[in-house]
Amino acid sequence: MAMSHSEATLALADVARARRRASRFLGYRRAGPHLQVWGLVWVLGYGLPTVLPDIGELWIWAVLDVAGVAGSIWLSRGAGTNDLSGQSRKASLRMAGAFAVVFLFVWATLAVMHPANPAAWRVYPALVLGAIYGLLGVFALPRFLAVAAVVAAAGLLAFFLAPQVLSLVIALVGGGSLLLGGVWMRRF
Amino acid sequence: MAQSNEIIHQTLRLKIMTAVCLDSADEAWDFSRLKKITEATDGNLGSHLGILEQAGYVSIEKDFVGKRPRTRVSATSEGRRAFREHVEYLRDIVERVR
């Protein structure tokens, strides 16, 4: 039986809606484990200098960034998620690349701007990450908006109101929100 | 001109095929995830998956993760082709009126 124009339009709208939901689901499932890896990096990166002040902060970050990128690549190869192959692996690898670009950008900007206030060094990555996750939330995966808001707000509030505990706040609230955000996204 | 596919045309089956034929998804979909995406009930989803499986459009694997049963659904190449043709048919109808 031939289909009418309105039936076809409705069916195409159903296809578009289901495609959006399925894409969103895949996006969250792929992003979740990466977010957890970087959450752990943040907890350690901002937390360790507080407990081990003798070890240089930059060294800690250098090691953790390498570990974070390695972790993201490991996840992209299928470990930690179910049956990633072909297209899925390529998409996850792109995501790992995106994380690496963000961290390199933060390092490069700090090296060029060289802020005099040590607190500015510490809060800057939280603001950059907040902006990137915010954009990701606006354009594709709305749950990133909540993570972005928590990471950026925690950094800003601590910078202006409690700079003496800035690192601890970013470690616990920022890193914690990345870890929990990862769990939240995996459960979408 | 592409042809209408009476099996895929039904709303829930169209949603199921959209999810399993997603370009970026070449892995199987868990039943529970498909349920969320299609907003269907267990029974409804199960019966429509059965129809799609009978038509050779999806393959269904059942196994256990620990003690929990798991049902995974993926599109067959025949299913992908049929879905593509049906969407083409829908687009033809919409375009013809413009």
Quaternary structure annotation:
heterodimer
What integer is the average pLDDT of chain A?
87
Low-confidence runs of at least 5 consecutive residues of chain A: none
Instruction: Work out the radius of gyration of chain B.
Output: 14 Å
Beta-strand share of residues of chain A: under 5%
Overall pLDDT confidence of chain B: 89
The helix-and-strand class of chain A reads: mainly alpha
The percentage helix of chain A is over 70%
Order of helices and strands of chain B: HHEHHEEH
CATH fold assignment of chain B: Arc Repressor Mutant, subunit A
Count of β-strands of chain A:
0
Rg calculated over all Cα atoms of chain A: 19 Å
Query: Structural class of the helices, strands and pairings of chain B?
Result: alpha+beta
Q: What labels would you give this structure?
A:
heterodimer, A: about 190 residues, mainly alpha, 6 helices, B: about 100 residues, alpha+beta, Arc Repressor Mutant, subunit A, 3-stranded antiparallel β-sheet, 5 helices, about 55% helix, elongated
Describe this structure in words.
The complex is a heterodimer of chains A (188) and B (98). Chain A has one domain. Chain A contains 6 helices and no strands. With 188 residues, chain A is mostly helical. The mean pLDDT of chain A is 87. Helix content of chain A is 83%, strand content 0%. With 98 residues, chain B is of the alpha+beta class. Chain B has a single domain (6-97), classed as Winged helix-like DNA-binding domain superfamily/Winged helix DNA-binding domain (Arc Repressor Mutant, subunit A), CATH 1.10.10.10. Chain B has 5 helices and 3 strands; from the N terminus they run ααβααββα. A 3-stranded antiparallel beta sheet of chain B has the order 1-3-2. In chain B, strand 2 and strand 3 (68-75) form a beta hairpin. The two termini of chain B are 17 Å apart. The interface between A and B is medium-sized, with 27 and 26 residues.
